[in-house]
Amino acid sequence: MSDIDPTTQTELEAAVFRRLVAHLRTRSDVQNIDMMNLAGFCRNCLSNWLKDAADERGLPLTKDQSREHVYGMPYDEWKRTHQTEASPDQQARFEAQAKGH
């Protein structure tokens, strides 16, 4: 991508982020703990990174607003509707891998 100008690169990266968020909104069956155990990040990570980017630019974005952007609804509503209780195995894998995250 070295031959792409910085503005176009930013637009492409933004399009990828929007597509990832849209994809995750359609896959509410995929639990955050499974994402963390498999990939080392989850929807909450994405929303935190979005907030971090806004903070770096001095833009007002709350944690709740960034989560709603990623989840497509208030986080508490998503948890009530889609989140299941983590199994002991899922929790153990998360705790083993989450050190330093």
Return the CATH architecture: Orthogonal Bundle
Beta-strand percentage? under 5%
What structural class do you assign from the helix and strand content?
mainly alpha
State the helicity in percent bands: 55-70%
The largest sheet, given as strand count, sense and whether it forms a barrel, is: none
How would you characterize this protein structure?
The structure is a single chain. With 101 residues, the chain is mainly alpha-helical. The chain is built from six helices and no strands. The model has no long low-confidence stretch (mean pLDDT 93). It has helices at 6-26, 32-39, 43-56, 63-71, 75-82, 88-97. The longest helix is centred in the first third of the chain and has 21 residues, at 6-26. It is globular.
Summarize the structure.
With 101 residues, the protein is mainly α.
